[in-house]
Design brief:
Blueprint (H helix, E strand, L loop, with lengths): L4 E5 L5 E5 L2 H9 L3 E3 L2 E3 L1 E3 L13 E9 L8 H11 L1 E5 L1 H5 L5 E9 L7 E5 L5 E8 L27 E3 L5 E3 L15 E3 L7 E2 L18
Parallel strand pairs: 2-13, 5-13
Antiparallel strand pairs: 1-2, 3-4, 6-8, 6-10, 7-8, 7-14, 9-10, 11-12
Length: about 220
């Protein structure tokens, strides 16, 4: 990025970037994607009383775009409902907050990379019609669900149960039932910014339905 930041390293592996101004931090956090030696550098705002314990690398903040979202849905409530289907909504960016770029709404969401990330979210509009809202994930990092590594994808994992076989004494091969955990060193944890200031507007996680705008109920 273009702004100067002081790098502070923690023994647990966290990288803390201290910027000279809040605007520099926000511009950096809203930009990207960033990579170090080909590996993703995932930034997030450092909360108060941050716990420097080893991070859970299966949950990461990721920018998500809701393409061609109807203008009536550009509210904190609607965006929170959409984002809650995918994960935990954190913030929307400045253009989304100001409605200055209507091609897509952009929301920072904490996602679980072990879960299913939908490409389409069904939305029931106030007029009763149903909208299939397209979802685009920005710079979704490679992640292996077998060994929790960011070095390769699940399909190319050598420890995949379908690829692990044991040779028996009679020459036949059988699938190994053993779950093998990766012994490789974990990838560098995500960086964080020292100012706990929202990008534009924070988005609460919404679990209760709204009578005028809601997600369709699943069928029987």
């Amino acid at each position: 990025w273009q702004y100067h930041a002081t790098l502070i390293m923690h023994d647990s592996g966290w990288l803390v970037f201290e910027f000279l101004s809040e605007s520099a931090m926000l511009d950096t956090l809203g930009g990207g994607p960033y990579a170090v030696y080909g590996r993703p550098l995932i930034l997030q705002v450092m909360p108060d009383f941050f716990d420097f314990s080893p991070p859970d690398l299966t949950k990461i903040p990721l920018w998500v775009r809701f393409l061609n979202l109807p203008i009536r849905c550009w509210t904190p409530l609607c965006l929170s409902k959409l984002a809650s289907v995918i994960g935990k909504p954190l913030y929307c960016d400045a253009p989304t907050h100001a409605k200055s770029k209507l091609s897509y709404a952009r929301v920072l969401i904490e996602i679980d990379v072990l879960g299913v990330l939908p490409d389409l979210v069904s939305v029931q509009l106030p007029n009763g019609s149903t909208l299939g809202q397209q979802v685009l994930y920005e710079s979704l990092p490679r992640f292996c669900k077998n060994c929790a590594s960011m070095r390769h994808s699940t399909s190319s994992c050598k420890d995949s149960p379908s690829k692990r076989k044991l040779s028996s004494s009679d020459g036949h091969t059988t699938a190994s039932p053993t779950i093998v955990k990766s012994t490789e060193a974990p990838p560098p944890p995500s960086g964080s910014c020292p100012l706990a200031t929202p990008l534009a507007a924070s988005l609460p996680k919404v679990t209760s339905p709204s009578p005028s705008w809601r997600l369709p109920s699943p069928g029987p």
